[in-house]
């Protein structure tokens, strides 16, 4: 397998091309850092976009919803999907409105979606999604009941084509704007887990596991 | 105008309906709190989703990109758009994989897109977008040059239909799972502006404005 996704009309980044990357390592890194994916489908000729929990296993993205959720039915019906994962890293305060922008990490992936139906395949897919969002947690929990698995809809999207865009910079002002007495710089925007909050039902003496404690304070 | 969006096949929330809201106040509140919108379009019969900066003016969403960006050309060509804004508020660690979930605020809006072409309209739209992402900043900057306005693509989407979904809860475990010695609760996920970082070109004595300072430490 090539280290890069092939560049086609579909995944080619047309704007600000110097920010584009097509290598699998960069694409996978952003997919692994995100927490919610935006999945787009076509329904009756019209676009629909839905936020979903997800996980990655090689070149397969697993997306998770209720079995009867519209997104699951749509994916089943249409097959084609476009998925975007974006992390917002800050606002770039340039000295003109035109040069002002945002810092971000973003991946857009295109692929064919299929419903995951076999219980064993579904278990695997859900383990991948759980491990992505809540690393180490799955091993602390009982096995899923068969009816729970049946009530859960899982879609697998094989990534056929993808691109990443990363912007991580200070303002890029025109020389003629630099004389103005206007402040320029960046205001970082962080998405970070804070501190675990127990519910009222935790049995006495039960503490969060090391895996859960390790998530506190971490940044996406 | 009604205080609620009409419920139709398109915007009806089918899963976990108790989390759904159709009132304009809730929908507008989430749109105003977000920073990036995911806009979906159809291109050659296939879905495309793109993250975009945006702003809201009444029932109009303005989305911003380069004039030649795919998303702008697509919107111009197809007209129909679906836009989602999602804020991720935390992970819900239940005592089963099935009951584990996420806390979030999310809006999905459907509407017809049109290209904003007149320079005066574009100025207004860009002011709305700027005020949304960087409140108070536009007034500190010089007026946009006409060529800058021409190089900027702006799309307006009139919201025809929308729904909100909010999940803000502790685990909702089955009774039979409560005896297990497994910790349950929530790990909040915050998206927060940190501290302004000046670039190397700030003139001596120039400090960030009160408007910029006011953004430091604020949470989406």
Care to describe what's here?
The structure is a homodimer of 220-residue chains. With 220 residues, chain A is α+β, with helices and mostly antiparallel strands. Chain A contains five helices and nine strands, in the order E-H-E-E-E-H-E-E-H-H-E-E-E-H. In chain A, a hairpin with a 7-residue loop joins strand 5 and strand 6 (101-115). At the A-B interface, strand 2, strand 3, strand 5, strand 6 and helix 3 of A face strand 2, strand 3, strand 5, strand 6 and helix 3 of B.
Task: Classify the beta-strand content of chain A into a percent band.
Answer: 35-45%
CATH architecture of chain A: Roll
Order of helices and strands of chain A: EHEEEHEEHHEEEH
How many domains comprise the coordinates of chain A? 1
Tell me the name of the CATH class of chain A.
Mainly Beta
Biggest interface and its residues per chain? A-B, 94 and 95 residues
Strand order of the largest sheet of chain A: 2-3-4-7-6-5
Query: Average pLDDT of chain A, to the nearest integer?
Result: 92
Q: What's the oligomerization state?
A: homodimer
Task: Look at the structure and name the CATH superfamily of chain A.
Answer: Electron Transport, Fmn-binding Protein, Chain A
- Describe the sheet with the most strands of chain A: 6 strands, antiparallel, barrel
Beta strands of chain A, count:
9
Tally the helices of chain A: what do you get?
A: 5
Helix content of chain A: 10-25%
CATH topology of chain A: Pnp Oxidase, Chain A
Low-confidence stretches of chain A: none
Structural class of chain A: alpha+beta
